[in-house]
Design goal:
Layout lengths: L5 H17 L3 H7 L4 H8 L8 H10 L4 H4 L7 H10 L9 H13 L18 H9 L7
């Protein structure tokens, strides 16, 4: 698999942009990512090769950069990625009213043989036999 010729140049351009935005000098920028300053200079020169994966990961994780953005797979830069992260919530929502009804019914039915499912619970919880029985009472030709 051959690397597209513009990929190393794009990486160098985006790394240079990240360095400029950070406000740090090359030495400090490289030191924080635990890479050699000469390695950083080589990467910024836009040669014909891309860095090793561990170097890309170190730069990205240390300076809050997206690896996809650095290597040109995404156009969402550091600022846009930060905004997305601030607006994204990973909290699990609380139980819905349907969940509450189901949990209540399950606690009441504990240790009993369940012979029916209350009509107030969603059809997804009913067995095929229960649904067939309920539909058998419906008038022919109705849903």
């Amino acid at each position: 698999m051959e690397i597209r010729p513009n990929l190393p140049a794009m990486f160098a351009e985006r790394l240079s942009d990240a360095l400029r935005r950070s406000g740090l000098g090359k030495g400090t920028f490289a030191e924080r990512a635990e890479i050699d300053r000469t390695t950083l200079s080589q990467l910024l020169s836009g040669g014909s090769r891309l860095p090793r994966l561990d170097t890309v990961v170190a730069l990205a994780s240390t300076h809050d950069l997206s690896i996809d953005w650095l290597v040109g797979l995404s156009n969402t830069g550091p600022l846009e990625a930060e905004l997305v992260l601030q607006e994204t919530s990973f909290e699990t929502p609380g139980p819905t009213p349907t969940d509450e009804r189901l949990l209540s019914w399950l606690s009441e039915a504990a240790d009993y043989k369940i012979r029916y499912v209350p009509a107030t619970l969603p059809d997804l919880l009913k067995s095929d036999d229960v649904i067939r029985f309920e539909r058998s009472r419906a008038l022919p030709g109705t849903a």
